[in-house]
Amino acid sequence: MNDTRPKGITFKVWARHALFTDPLTRIGGEKCSYHLPTYEALKGVAKSIYWKPTFIWVIDEVRIMKRIRTQTKGTKPLKYHAEGNDLAIYTFLADVEYQVRAHFEWNLHRPELADDRNPGKHFAVAQRTLERGGRQDIFLGTRDCQGYVEPCEFGTGPGDYDGTDEIAYGLMFHGFDYPDETGMNESREGELQARFWRPTMKDGYLRFPRPEDCTIRKLVRTMTAKQFVKDKNLRGIEAEATELKLEVGDGMD
User: Fold this and answer.
1) How many domains does the chain have?
2) Range of the domain at 19
3) How many CB atoms lie within 10 A of CB 243?
4) What is the pTM of this model?
5) Distances (CA, A) of 199 to 36, 68, 123, 169, 228
6) Is 1 inside any structural domain?
7) What gap in Å lies between CA 87 and CA 131, rounded to an integer?
8) Is residue 70 part of a domain?
9) Helices (H) and strands (E) in the chain, counts
């Protein structure tokens, strides 16, 4: 009998800089980071480690390991409506390190991928790719902030916020609701919505509510979900190619 319980991973992610952008600071081009990582950013890290449309990563909690420090830097982003570069001031987080606990759940809005719901296989691949630093490049909030991951035991080791009291951060961006994860209507369209919440950090730990438990939402736009191959033979070829790639990689150490 197959084990259908959620499979979880724990990992450490660190970087010289991070930029978890507050949406209010994006209007004028002068970006400023939240003091805490967002659910969506950590979900993106988990997807960079290993992801398939068969499942959805759920971030359970994060532990802030190092003291929160900011650093302001001048940057030259591309101009949107003209050639060349502009000058902007970005406020980054400096020298960040987090411990993250996450698990994956089946994407029930992808019934065509039901045959791929093998928890043991996906958990093993996720663990193996995590040990290798992930399948894709790791970014903390933006491509300017290269990060790194490795397995860890969640909650171990000293943290700079051990024994501190609760710290409330007010309204903060949580993540996006994508139609391929939340469902579509009869016209095969869905809604892209932004979720918000009010986090409270205690002893350096930040426990995220599940996406469906976030009550503050804003409609961004309507959109359709990406379609994937439904032919079983083609899916089998894709799966075999993926496994072959991993096996080839296993022999390159």
Assistant:
1) 1
2) 7-250
3) 12
4) 0.84
5) 9, 16, 29, 6, 35
6) no
7) 39
8) yes
9) 4, 12
